[in-house]
Amino acid sequence: MSFGTIAAAVSIASAVGGTYMSIQGQKSAAKAAQQSAEWNADQARKQAKFEEETAQENMRRKRENNKRAIARQRAMGARAGLTDAGAVGEMLIDKSERLQQDVDDLWKNASTRSEQLRGQAQMSLWEGKQAKAASKYSIYGTALGGLAKVASGGMALKNSLGGGYDVSNAPKAIPVNE
């Protein structure tokens, strides 16, 4: 066996093996990207739920503190001999509304953050799907490239075994009149 034959056979074998290994690596990378995207999405959803639960607990505490603050204000007015009518009543209502606004702001911030996290979860899943699709096309490209290398190696093998193109039967160039 000539060196050319051995080299051509090794070229074909390495093209097949390299193509196979590359495709397996791309499949593994696509699977890892999908799993990573799903994990990230799950973590974002868990964080969103945690943020909402924390906000609800903080709102509950804030409401309790607000009730105490209004009760103190009422008690101070009563000690001074004032009733809840008139200016004192309006002041208590105003304070109550301001304190409730703080509670509402807690929820608004938490719900906005939760929606952002849920959006990140959706984006992570979408990115995972896109990575999987891109990997599929990359695998097709690798397979076609491997096929081309095998075909090229096959032609080299054919030539080394003496089955190459016979130049003596090739069409002759047409003479150009000068």
Give me the Rg, rounded. 38 Å
Unreliable spans: none
Structural class based on helices, strands and sheet pairing: mainly alpha
What general form does the structure show? rod-shaped
Mean pLDDT: 86
- The secondary-structure element order is HH
Termini separation: 48 Å
Note the beta-strand portion. under 5%
**Total strands:** 0
Number of helices: 2
List the helices and strands and how they pair.
Layout: H1 3-79, H2 86-160
Short description:
With 178 residues, this protein is mostly helical. It contains two helices and no strands.
Provide an overview of this structure.
The structure is a single chain. With 178 residues, the chain is mostly helical. It has one domain. It contains two helices and no strands. Helix 1 runs antiparallel to helix 2. The radius of gyration is 38 Å and the shape is rod-shaped. The model has no long low-confidence stretch (mean pLDDT 86).
Can you give keywords for this protein?
178 residues; 2 helices; 0% strand; single chain; mainly alpha; rod-shaped; 85% helix
